[in-house]
Structures are given as structure tokens and as C-alpha cells.
Write the C-alpha cells for this entry.
Amino acid sequence: MIRVLIVKDYEEVSREAALRIAEIIRSKPDAVLGLATGSTPIGCYRELIRMHKMEGLSFSKVSTFNLDEYVGLAPDHPQSYHYYMFQNLFNHVDIKVENIHIPNGVAEDLDEECLNYEESIKRAGGIDLQLLGIGRNGHIGFNEPGSSFESRTRVVKLSEQTRMDNARFFKSLDEVPTHAITMGIATIMEAKRIILLASGEAKAEAISKAIKGPKTVMVPASALQDHEDCLFIVDRKAASLL
Ligand code: GLP
């Protein structure tokens, strides 16, 4: 069952998420975090940075695994998720670079990169807390509608809606990569805890389908209904169809 926490606005979504992440790091300093990108988690990362600077929250033993990366974008490309993570979190906290894991979208052998990624998650002892956003079409990571619930880290083709939604970060739609590496739904489901964040009306339909709709591969986030410890933190607008 998915538990839902409905809060006033984006600021509160961010604070509630950061509080929970900080709690895990404080009780287990070497926690393994699964991290997400997109515009939604930025406020949460900002709050974690504040906690690091003002409240002594330390990431020195934390390891992280990001959900996904665009195929074809080098780590220093401003729209890559590598770049995003360093800009929005890693450059501002005391995490060790060797503990950071993000799929390499320019690996020579992408399939091998995916297998290795799964292996490193296992070697780290699995993910303690996976943070997620959600796409308007219900995607998690880059698991688009139709993705098998058994899927693992792999190369996927992005849907046109996702490319258009993410085009706002690029100069033009043409520049948005067509493929990505993403953890699979089965990979995500193995995390011990999951927290999904959503804010704004544009996410209301996806949130309602994920929670109340039938479990279907057409709404990838509906797989989370089977997770033992999954919390959605959503603002009133994203919760408006619940
Ligand atoms: C991308 C990411 C997802 C993210 C989604 C929503 O497609 N791969 O992990 O959840 O965007 O992004 P936003 O938070 O900007 O709406």
C-alpha cells in the first residue's frame, strides 16, 4: 500500500522529504541513497544542503545511486544528470566522489554499464531509501509506460511526451536525447524504503492513477502499490484528484 502525505505546497514537500532523508543519514551514517533528478527534488536538495551547512548533517559516509542518465550526454554536459547532481547537491555537501554512482550515458558498452550498475548496487548492500519524482505519464526514473515490472537497469527509448516535457531544459526539442539508461522497476522496488515527491496540477492525474488506479504497466508508478514502505509526499495541487 502507498501511504500519502498531503502538504500545502512545494516548499513543504521539499522540507518533509529532506527531514526524512536526514533522519536516515543520522541513524545510519553510511546509508545508501537512491537519488532522482528533474525539477521536483531541487528544493529537497537545497534543504539538505542547508542542513549540512547549518546543522552539521554529514554525507561523508553516504553512498548514492542515481536513477538514470541520458544516453549520449557526457558528465560535463549541462543537461546531463551528472552535471545536475553536482550543481544541485554534491558540490555543496561533504560526500566522497568515490561514493557517488550515476549511470554513464557515454559508456562504450551501454549494456555492460547497466549490468555493472546493478552489481554495484548489490555490492553496496542495496538501497536504503530511494527518492523518486514522477513523470506526467506516470513514469518513474525513465521507465516509460509499457515498462515491465520485472525490468532492471537498461537502455530505454524516451516517449515523445517525456522528451517534450524535458525540452524546457534544452535549446530545442532536437537536442533532447532519444534514449536513456534507467534503473528498472524491479531495481527500484528492491529499495528498502521509497519516497516519491510530486508538486503541482500537472502531476495530479499521474498521482491519482498511481495510487487509486489498477496496477498496470501503462502507469509505471502503480507498481509501487506493492511496496512495503512507500510514501508519496505531494502538495495540494498534485493531490487534487485523490
Ligand atoms: C525526468 C526524470 C524523472 C523525473 C521526471 C519528472 O523524466 N527522469 O526521474 O521524475 O523527469 O520531472 P520533474 O520533476 O521536472 O517534473
Observations:
- The chain has one domain: 2-235.
- The longest strand covers residues 2-7.
